[in-house]
From TrEMBL:
<protein>
    <submittedName>
        <fullName>TIGR03619 family F420-dependent LLM class oxidoreductase</fullName>
        <ecNumber>1.-.-.-</ecNumber>
    </submittedName>
</protein>
<dbReference type="InterPro" id="IPR019921">
    <property type="entry name" value="Lucif-like_OxRdtase_Rv2161c"/>
</dbReference>
<keyword id="KW-0503">Monooxygenase</keyword>
<keyword id="KW-0285">Flavoprotein</keyword>
<dbReference type="GO" id="GO:0016491">
    <property type="term" value="F:oxidoreductase activity"/>
</dbReference>
<dbReference type="InterPro" id="IPR011251">
    <property type="entry name" value="Luciferase-like_dom"/>
</dbReference>
<keyword id="KW-0288">FMN</keyword>
<keyword id="KW-0560">Oxidoreductase</keyword>
<dbReference type="Pfam" id="PF00296">
    <property type="entry name" value="Bac_luciferase"/>
</dbReference>
<dbReference type="InterPro" id="IPR050172">
    <property type="entry name" value="SsuD_RutA_monooxygenase"/>
</dbReference>
<dbReference type="InterPro" id="IPR036661">
    <property type="entry name" value="Luciferase-like_sf"/>
</dbReference>
<feature type="domain" description="Luciferase-like">
    <location>
        <begin position="10"/>
        <end position="228"/>
    </location>
</feature>
């Protein structure tokens, strides 16, 4: 099982140093969250908390994850980065293809594209995109972005997007993996059908095991069982070595963690406290030999 460090909701001036430390202590990747803006009044409940409340406010720091990946990639050599997850629905696929291809090239193919639809109607409507039929629109967006990133002259004539032959150069020298987020039935089908992996929001180990089992069934239905596939998880109830063994047994291949929360520090903790927590976490879990 791999380990990814999430840097959600922390001061943006810490990011490059956190990337250096993550690589130094042995993390496999950095997970980068996405939020366009904070709306004072939300039309929909946040889907990943019990009461629908958001875990952040108008002063919580966010940075564009693609820009962050490029900046963090510039100060590391082997660490990977992925969005967890970027909300596709409110964006334009051709502009995103240009950005994703740039990040993949600048990081030497150390970037994975974690994608979701987006939960907030305001993010769609205030960016000039309809909220209705968002799932079908995102399906076509993924098709467009993959087509462009594959390189060469391409065209597309679909329901939502239409363009004649074009090419973006340079194309990434290796395919950019797509990790699909979401817990709903349609999201799981999307991940199984077109994804190189699935990424969770906050779930218990039991929920993760059930969901991974369902994804394996769906992948078999789509004839994709032989295609490599990641199960990236944010688990909320397994915090010791035995718990991590349970996650691995459940099928989790990439455990997304926030080390400083485990040791009593908040999202806005000083950089030194976060670095110490990362080192302690690595000693306990990454280098302890429990997977040998």
């Amino acid at each position: 099982m791999k380990y990814t460090c999430s840097v959600a909701m922390g001061p943006i001036e810490q990011l490059t140093e956190l990337a250096r430390t993550a690589e130094e202590v042995g993390f496999d990747a950095i997970a980068l969250p996405d939020s366009l803006f904070y709306m004072e009044s939300a039309a929909a409940d946040y889907p990943y908390t019990a009461d629908g409340s958001r875990m952040w406010d108008e002063n919580t720091p966010w940075v564009d994850p693609l820009i962050a990946a490029a900046a963090m990639g510039a100060v590391t050599t082997g660490l990977r980065f992925y969005t967890n997850v970027l909300k596709l629905g409110s964006r334009n696929p051709l502009l995103l293809a240009r950005q994703v291809g740039s990040v993949a090239n600048l990081t030497g193919n150390r970037f994975g594209f974690g994608v979701g639809i987006g939960w907030a109607p305001e993010e769609f409507e205030w960016c000039g995109v309809p909220y209705a039929r968002r799932g079908a629109r995102v399906d076509e967006m993924i098709e467009v972005i993959k087509k462009v990133l594959a390189g060469g002259m391409v065209e597309h004539h679909g329901e939502f997007f239409d363009f004649d032959r074009l090419q973006m150069s340079p194309a990434p020298s290796a395919p950019v993996p797509f990790y699909v987020g979401g817990h709903t039935g349609p999201a799981l089908k999307r991940a199984a059908r077109v994804g190189d992996g699935w990424t969770s929001a906050m779930m218990t180990c039991a929920q993760l095991a059930e969901t991974i089992g369902r994804l394996k069934e769906l992948r078999a239905e789509y004839g994709r069982t032989e295609v490599p596939f990641e199960y990236q998880a944010v688990c909320i109830d397994k915090f010791d070595v035995d718990g991590h063994r349970e996650l691995a047994a459940a099928g989790v291949t990439d455990n997304i963690v926030v080390p400083w929360l485990l040791y009593g520090h908040g999202f806005d903790a000083p950089l030194a406290d976060k670095q110490d927590a990362m080192k302690r976490f690595a000693e306990t879990f990454i280098h302890s030999g429990w997977q040998d």
